[in-house]
Design a protein that fits this description.
Number of strands: 11
Order of helices and strands: EHEHEHEHEHEHEHEHHHEEEHHHHH
Structural class: alpha/beta
Helix content: 40-55%
Number of domains: 3
Strand content: 5-15%
Bound molecules: magnesium ion
Radius of gyration: 20 Å
Length: about 375
């Protein structure tokens, strides 16, 4: 089990659940980072007594520093602050629970210091999967996925030999609009889009779940984490979210991981791995499970998934462009400045316009990320 943690993105949904799990397991929380929710951050800082806290937003960082002036805590800010928190000498694990591509550089900083990465920031692998996995391999840094699907695949592959895996069966609930036609979704509001049937999550990932972009990002994430080709990943819609994903082995055996839909479980495993510890979460009751059902994803009415699967095979900066454009479009949608169906239009438009950009190194990737955001800002609210 890990001994001392940094939690990047501690005020978000995964960050808060991570702190609860750390408290339950008795793991020291040595560093915290947040974007700008400093009231909650102050509460967490007083409770967990980290030695270092970074606030991404500069103005919020100054206000936070004043608020905790009575505590023996160092305060950092900006991307530098996040990177320092990720590479702090006293920690052995970083939980990357920030949302978006801002997680990329801190993750690389942690890899360079051989920290365990409890990876909850999928954009990092979507944007720079090849570079990140290669660097982690070279430095010997462990990446343990926190995303429930990838944790399930990771668990299903424990003890397997290379060459035994035939395909990954990536499950998804289908989101709140499963069964709807694209034309019916035109007038969807942010309030409707963030209401997920099974999972309680942050706003950005909830919107992504509703468009199936989340499943698309997870498709790309799985490809990098488990070093498989896009053809070896099959998306299976499973509305009950009881099976969190499966693997099919070469002999036809299918191994699945099941559990209640609670992110606390994959978070805890990422911190205790390779051990298992008792947890406080609800247990599955098979007498109460009426049925588990499965269907094909509807790529026609949820084209974000098809777009992501296409980008998975393209290489270069295509996946990064798609993810950054989506992130920006979702931000505008949540602000009420963009129609729901425009999220796909803009992500697809950005890929079309910018997919030739190279993804050769981190600077090229970050440049592609910025270009995609500019594309959405320029074409978004027209
Ligand atoms: Mg997931």
């Amino acid at each position: 089990m890990v001994k001392s943690l940094s939690v990047l993105g501690c005020t978000g949904s995964i960050g808060r659940q991570t702190l609860a799990v750390a408290e339950h397991l008795g793991i020291r929380v040595a560093a915290l980072t947040a974007n700008r929710q400093i009231d909650r951050l102050e509460e967490q800082t007083r409770k967990f007594k980290p030695s270092f806290v970074a606030v991404y937003d500069e103005a919020a960082a100054r206000a936070f520093k004043t608020a905790v002036a009575d505590l023996p805590v160092r305060v950092g800010s900006g991307l530098e602050g996040l990177m320092e928190a990720a590479a702090l000498p006293e920690i052995d694990c970083v939980v990357t629970a920030v949302s978006g591509s801002v997680g990329l550089k801190p993750t690389l900083a942690a890899i360079d210091e051989k920290k365990r990465i409890a990876l909850a920031n999928k954009e990092t692998l979507v944007c720079a999967g090849e570079l990140v996995m290669k660097r982690a391999g070279e430095r010997g840094a462990e990446i343990v996925p926190v995303d429930s699907e990838h944790s399930a695949i990771f668990q299903s592959l424990m003890g397997r030999q290379p060459g035994e895996l035939r395909k990954i069966l990536l499950t998804g609930s289908g989101g709140p609009f499963r069964g709807k036609k694209r034309a019916e979704l035109e007038a969807v509001t942010p309030q409707q889009a963030v209401k997920h049937p099974n999972w309680n999550m942050g706003a950005k990932i909830s919107v992504d779940s509703s468009t199936l972009m989340n499943k698309g990002l997870e498709f790309i994430e799985a490809m990098h984490l488990f070093a498989v080709k896009p053809e070896a990943i099959q998306v299976v819609i499973h509305p009950q979210s009881v099976i969190h994903s499966m693997v099919e082995l070469v002999d036809g055996t299918v191994i699945a991981q099941l559990g209640v839909p609670d992110m606390g479980l994959p978070i805890q495993l990422a911190l205790t791995y390779p051990e298992r510890r008792p947890s406080l979460f609800e247990r599955l009751d098979f007498y109460k499970l009426a049925a588990l059902s499965f269907e094909e994803p509807d790529l026609e009415n949820f084209p974000c998934l098809a777009l992501a699967m296409d980008c998975a095979g393209r290489g270069g900066a295509a996946a990064c462009v798609m993810s950054a454009a989506n992130e920006e479009a979702v931000r505008l949608f949540l602000q009420g400045r963009l129609g729901y169906n425009r999220i796909y239009d803009l992500a697809a438009g950005a890929v079309e316009a910018l997919c030739g950009l190279p993804g050769t190194d981190i600077d090229a990737i970050l440049e592609a990320d910025r270009a995609a955001r500019r594309y959405v800002q320029e074409n978004g609210t027209k």
